[in-house]
Design a protein that fits this description.
The protein has a five-stranded parallel sheet with strand order 2-1-3-4-5, with helices on both faces. 47% of the residues lie in helices and 20% in strands. It has helices at residues 11-23, 34-43, 60-70, 87-97, 109-121; strands at 3-7, 27-31, 48-52, 75-80, 101-104.
Length: 123
């Protein structure tokens, strides 16, 4: 069973993703910010990371860079609803920093699940 780290500062979004992923046979670990995400990732055996971009403490772009430094091959899906910039700008940066898939919020769960399956099957 693949283990997915879901990183978002909004608990309702983490909960929605957790339920959808568990219902599709994945194990889920959660983090509410980038600092916690790096800690959870170091605890071991994460197959894929789904992260928000705009978060307090350590935001997603910095987290993506840190995750890639720890494990260059980590699979990452980034999502953003925007902030000071349009979501597209943050997502472009996330792609440049190493996210393999990027999505603007709100996003369809089926689209996200398809991306998860595709990335996990690419091993």
């Amino acid at each position: 069973m693949a283990k997915i780290l879901v990183v978002d500062d909004e608990e309702p979004i983490r909960g929605l993703l957790r339920h959808a992923l568990i219902a599709n046979g994945y194990e889920v670990v959660e983090a509410s910010n980038g600092t916690e995400a790096i800690h959870r990732f170091r605890e071991g055996a994460i197959d894929l990371v789904i992260t928000d971009i705009i978060m307090p403490d350590k935001e997603g772009l910095e987290s993506i860079m840190d995750l890639k430094e720890i494990d260059h091959d980590v699979k990452i899906i980034a999502m953003s609803g925007g902030g000071r910039l349009e979501p597209h700008s943050y997502l472009q940066m996330a792609s440049k920093f190493g996210a393999q898939r990027v999505f603007q919020k709100p996003l369809s769960i089926s689209t996200l699940l398809s991306a998860v399956e595709e990335l996990l099957d690419s091993d």
